[in-house]
Amino acid sequence: MKKIILLCTLAVVMFACKSISATSTNTDRKAQVNMKGNWEISSVTYPGSQYVKVNSFQLADSECFVGSKWKFVSNNNKGTMAIAKAGCPSFSSSITWFVNNDKQFVLKVLNAGEKAKKVRDGYVLRLDNQTATSFQLVDRIDVAGNMTDVVYQFNKIN
Fold it and tell me: Is the whole-model pTM more than 0.85?
């Protein structure tokens, strides 16, 4: 009897300690609706940017994202993103995205013809300072053992 109680207790403790995934929480519909439309990244900032190069979204140097165009469709959580800066690799792709209740922005970059459910890798960034015409996405990266914020400033375009 003692063994059964001990096993039940251990099972409860193990399930109670399970971490919650960014993709398993509810969506923040208001934040998502506020992101609907066309956007441009006006700046990418982080401490030490003059010394450290950041490869954003495993696509290009973070500076290549300045001027990139993003479209967010809130009713189906799809969109597009495109880089077209001189001296940078040209890139355009469909995306899927959502904002969860913890203000985490979850992003998947899709290859041509690829379904989102087939893509296993994605990015989780923090949504900050959201207004009707701007917002920031903040990525946490490790630079020489120190966690650093990379801030992508988005501004609404027509």
Answer: no
pLDDT above 80 for 82:
yes
Residue 62 lies in a domain: yes
What does DSSP assign to residue 131?
Answer: -
Within 8 A by CB and 6+ apart from 41, the residues are 65, 66, 67, 68, 70, 152, 153, 154
* Residue whose C-alpha is closest to residue 97's, from 123, 120, 118: 123
Measure the CA–CA gap between 155 and 158, rounded to whole angstroms.
10
Count of domains for the chain: 1
Distance of CA 101 to the CA centre of its chain: 14
DSSP state at residue 25 = S
Give the Cα separation of 147 and 32 in Å (integer): 27
10 within some domain: no
Tell me the average pLDDT across 92-109. 90
